[in-house]
Design a protein that fits this description.
Blueprint: H1 3-12, E1 50-53, E2 59-62, E3 69-71, H2 74-83, E4 89-93, H3 103-110, E5 114-116, H4 122-126, E6 132-135, H5 152-157, E7 161-164, H6 166-169, H7 185-198, H8 201-222, E8 232-237, E9 246-248, H9 253-260, E10 264-265, E11 274-276, H10 279-285, E12 289-293, H11 300-316, H12 324-328, E13 331-332, H13 337-340, H14 346-357
Parallel strand pairs: 3-4, 3-6, 4-5, 6-7, 8-10, 8-12, 12-13
Antiparallel strand pairs: 1-2, 9-11
Helix pairs in contact: 7-8, 8-14
Length: 366
């Protein structure tokens, strides 16, 4: 992936959101273990110790609920705020911009100390006094030395345990499942894992239950639409650049979001999370719908302007002017963060897309 695109994907975190044995979000093969990690396995009642695994299956034992948590960015921060442990979060990188968090938790999220406007400097993380570091993406080598972060040995030396969000961190792992991800079980597992390690397993189940209910309603509503009649869908990552489009591939969370919404990701067949493609490739796919996926600019007017710019580009660029979706004005204005990064609002995005592409079958997309 190009450095610019990877920086954009990392920045997306600032705006934001089934267990292994139960793929509640769908019936595909992209579950939590398939994504490259193990499950959190709390004893009854959410007691400790709790074992969690990284992308390669290496387990960490969390012996007691952490009291000083640092998050790499706003994706994990939002999960922790929704789990009700925001008072334990002592710092974050990639802080949420205005409007990036749901209203009930926005005020508390704004009070979390910012340890890095982008990546947290290694020295600052190691000296933060944290006992748990929740990491959305893991190492980001395309961002240079700063993207590597502290080693496991360095974290352990200062008493910081490291927990990854497997749904986003493990797509490139050698143990990741091959083929497209078609359900939200890995996202739900991340919520359950954080619930287990923070002692809030019951609240995690509430969040997952609400997500599963939304997904079930959408799946039931669109069940009668044959696969061949499901509309082709292209997520246009405007902030990754317009010279060469960045496709959302089968291993990415967004592929599951699009699939569950009753659409067909036109680049589901590339076995990766993201991959640079050509505009000729996009034209050949001729999608029925295009999501104008822009990142939160920190205000409604700024966001509207960014969406307008993305739409204007597609309408004026010679290669895309003739696309079916462009000709018919079939655009969705949905932020990239709630589509491509795991979170507690991922199921809301499924419903919003479904209500747009299947308006007679699914209602209340907002």
């Amino acid at each position: 992936m190009r450095p610019r695109a990877l920086r954009g994907i990392a920045a997306a975190v600032a705006l934001f959101a089934a267990a292994t044995a139960c793929s509640g979000g769908g019936d595909g093969d992209g579950g939590a273990d398939a994504a490259g990690g193990g499950s959190a396995r709390p004893a009854a009642g959410g007691t400790f110790p709790v074992k969690v695994a990284d992308c390669d299956g290496k387990e960490t034992t969390v012996k007691q609920a952490p009291e000083r948590i640092v998050t790499s960015n706003a994706a994990a921060l939002e999960m922790l705020l929704q789990l009700g442990v925001g008072e334990r979060v002592i710092g974050t990188g990639f802080p949420p911009r205005k409007g990036g968090l749901p209203a009930p938790i926005a005020e508390q999220g704004a009070k979390v100390p910012v340890l890095g406007d982008t990546l947290i400097p290694k020295e600052k993380l190691l000296g933060s006094g944290a006992d748990l570091y929740v990491d959305t993406f893991g190492p980001m080598p395309a961002m240079g030395a700063a993207g590597s972060g502290p080693s496991e040995e360095e974290l352990k030396a200062v008493g910081i345990q490291h927990v990854l969000l497997l749904s986003t961190a493990c797509a490139k792992s050698s143990k990741a499942a091959q083929g497209p991800r078609t359900d939200l079980s890995a996202v739900e597992e991340d919520i359950r894992r954080l619930g287990a390690v923070t002692g809030t397993a019951a609240r995690a189940e509430e969040i997952v239950g609400a997500m599963e209910q939304q997904i079930t309603e959408v799946k039931n509503a669109t069940a009668g639409v044959p696969e061949a009649q499901r509309p082709g869908y292209f997520l246009f990552d405007f902030d990754a650049g317009t010279k060469q489009p960045m496709a959302v591939c089968g291993r990415q969370v967004a592929n599951a979001v699009i699939t569950l919404a009753g659409a067909r990701n036109v680049f589901a067949d590339c076995d990766a999370d993201f991959r640079p493609v050509s505009w000729e490739d996009v034209v050949a796919k001729n999608p029925d719908w295009i999501q104008l996926a822009v990142r939160n600019r920190g205000g409604e007017e700024a966001n509207r302007k960014a969406f307008d710019e993305a739409e204007a580009f597609l309408k004026s660029f010679p290669a895309t002017q003739g696309l079916k979706a462009v000709q018919e004005g079939r655009f969705l204005r949905i932020g990239s963060e709630v589509t491509t990064i795991a979170g507690t609002r991922t199921a809301d995005t499924v419903r919003q897309i479904a209500a747009t592409v299947h308006p007679t079958l699914v209602k209340n997309g907002q």
